[in-house]
């Protein structure tokens, strides 16, 4: 009996300290978020689900969970076999639940390690595996100097360098990493390039970094791309295709953001296309930096 009460107390205690992820679809189309626990970490109660435009789903996450979240898009079920598949972000399970399957690149990822070193939650948005959909992570109620929003608010598919494009139905639906496109060690940070001294930014990774300064653009892009909040203090809003209304709502939940002007940050690239280094135009870089500076005022 004493053991039973101890287990009950422990379950209540752990439940009280679990984290909550709120996953929101602000895209104008349906998405199917996927969730994958890291090796050795128990799977969540859901590993994939559908979100219609405007929908939000709250997911309770164990206090020491680590893993990744992404969005699948352009998904269909085969009329004969019933197999479910997606043009971008597919996890290979053949079903809406990913069941331990990871995202096929290219895909925009958000990565979490809760209750990590120094009693901090670590989180980042990564374009190391390429890009498919804009997303921003908003920590809500957290604390710490580096507990700030991060993400990639820019729509990059329309300006993806030609050699990196994934095309479906005549439209670019995702943008590969140079590693995925060319399988070259200098882009993949492998072999002789498998350390931060030899694996350096390239013109392709700079394309992603200039557009999305807080996101990982290559494997060793740690200094400007990893963020932390005190463990057990924050909930995390993962917003796909974040809109001005979603930013306003997040601001209302953070008093320090009161009075910050909203910006029309629908990201497009202007000018005459790319230089030989595939860099976004100066206007796009300016507006991306402006939006991220504004997001930083949330916390």
UniProtKB/TrEMBL annotation:
Claim: Nucleotide-binding is one of the keywords in the record: no
Intrachain S-S bonds: 27-241, 75-86, 91-98, 147-229, 152-212, 160-175, 179-188, 189-199
Entry superkingdom: Eukaryota
Keyword annotations of the record: Disulfide bond, Signal
Signal peptide, first to last residue: 1-18
CDD domains recorded: TLP-PA
SMART domains in UniProt: THN (SM00205)
PANTHER family named in the record: OS03G0233200 PROTEIN (PTHR31048)
UniProt name for this protein: Thaumatin-like protein
